[in-house]
Design goal:
The chain is of the alpha+beta class. The chain is built from 2 helices and 4 strands. The strands form 2 sheets. A two-stranded antiparallel ribbon has the order 1-2.
Length: 137
């Protein structure tokens, strides 16, 4: 397989991986205040994404793949909110272990990586078009 096709395949794997990362960040942000339903129950637990490098047998290129979507085992925050249905007898509620600042930074990084992979695809397409034009003329 030619190098330009390999570049396209590598960039496409990056797009897919960063799309998954953006989806997970979106879930975390959406559930940043999701408590349990009953007193003492656990709230939403932050999700994490880990990646791995996988060699494509056809091209020999290293592609990025989502290794797994796991959960962050960090401790839950505790807030005093006696009116919450998930509050214990003392009025304390377990809150998700989601930090909005961390999620926003992660989202920004995933977005930049996604855009970089899109740029690689655009450049590869331009090179393919230039090659076709040279072959015609």
């Amino acid at each position: 397989m030619d190098p330009i096709s390999s570049a396209l395949k590598i960039a496409a794997s990056g797009l897919e991986a960063q799309s998954t990362r953006l989806r997970v960040v979106s879930e975390n942000v959406a559930n940043a205040r999701s408590t349990g339903e009953t007193p003492g129950s656990d709230p939403y637990r932050r999700k994490t994404v880990s990646f791995t490098s996988e060699v494509d047998r056809l091209t020999g290129a290293d592609l990025v793949q989502v290794k797994n979507v796991g959960v962050d085992r960090a401790a839950f925050k505790i807030e005093h909110d006696p009116g919450n249905p998930a509050a214990d007898a003392d009025g304390y509620v377990k809150m998700p272990n989601v930090n909005s600042l961390v999620e926003m930074a992660d989202m920004r990084e995933a977005n930049r990586s996604y855009e970089a992979n899109l740029q690689v695809i655009k450049q590869a397409r331009e090179l393919i078009n230039l090659t076709i034009d040279l072959m015609r003329g």
